[in-house]
TrEMBL record:
Organism: Nesterenkonia rhizosphaerae
Pfam families according to UniProt: FCD, GntR
Top-level lineage group: Bacteria
SUPFAM superfamilies reported in the protein's UniProt record: GntR ligand-binding domain-like, Winged helix' DNA-binding domain
Protein name per the record: GntR family transcriptional regulator
Domain HTH gntR-type span(s) in chain numbering: 18-85
């Protein structure tokens, strides 16, 4: 994949020391989130360095930063694995989202600008049900819509926290597409987005926040969390995928 394929976001918190190290960080994180690098899999570092057309040194800069953020588990540079997904982390992400995103939505209802409303409306036009049949396109559109809402909170600390939370939670959404929950019809979930948008545009902050809580509690992320919590401890995820 060339440089145009890399997902580059300005709010990444990186201390990598070279531009190639930053590129390695971003590309590896993208692959982890999307599931291209499977949970628990071992990194073939020299193959990755060849793919990314860089030496092993900047690749290891990216690996070190990803390990510090718990995307990777590193015993030594020879034994680096993608962090596993587990019910405990899924539950924690869901709980934090329930705390932060309703409040960001409430603030957005009182602070949104006309330009921000236009962004929200355009994002809503791209929405698709987040199910296996729509896949990555739906996940990307879903994230863009929710971000268009919470960015309008104008609370930069809250925005950064939610950006990081969504990075971690998106990984579970991709996992969820392979679980039974990923094939469920989600018409109500889709409609709630439009209702949230209407409440924010009309300035009904408390009602919007309440609906976001309901939306999160019945989201694909919540369904994935419940599925993982109900799995026998020794059962691998691929045995329950449809």
């Amino acid at each position: 994949m060339g440089a145009k394929g890399w997902i580059i976001r300005q709010n990444d918190s990186m201390d990598v020391t070279s531009s190639k190290g930053a590129l390695a960080y971003r590309e590896l994180r993208r692959r982890i989130i999307s599931g291209e690098l499977a949970p628990g899999s071992r990194l073939s570092q020299y193959e990755l360095a060849d793919e990314l057309q860089m030496s092993i040194t900047p690749l290891r800069e990216g690996i070190r930063q990803l390990a510090s953020e718990d995307w990777l588990k590193m015993d030594t540079y020879r034994d680096v694995r993608v962090a596993s997904v587990d019910a405990g982390e899924a539950r924690e992400l869901l709980e934090v989202r329930l705390l932060l995103e309703p409040e960001a939505t409430r603030l957005a209802a009182g602070r949104r600008t006309g330009a921000e409303v236009s962004v929200m409306e355009k994002a809503a036009e791209q929405l698709l049900p987040v199910t296996r049949s729509w896949g990555e396109e739906a996940i990307s559109a879903h994230r863009a819509f929710h971000r268009s809402i919470y960015v309008a909170s104008h609370n930069h600390v809250l925005i950064r926290m939610l950006d990081g939370l969504w990075d971690k939670a998106d990984r579970y959404r991709y996992v969820g597409l392979q679980l039974p929950a990923g094939n469920e019809p989600r018409g109500l979930d889709l409609q709630q987005h439009y209702d949230i948008l209407r409440l924010v545009v009309e300035g009904h902050g408390e009602e919007a926040a309440d609906l976001v809580r309901t939306h999160i509690a019945h989201s694909l992320g919540a369904a994935v969390t419940q599925t993982l919590e109900n799995l026998p401890q020794a059962q691998p995820l691929d045995e329950v995928s449809a």
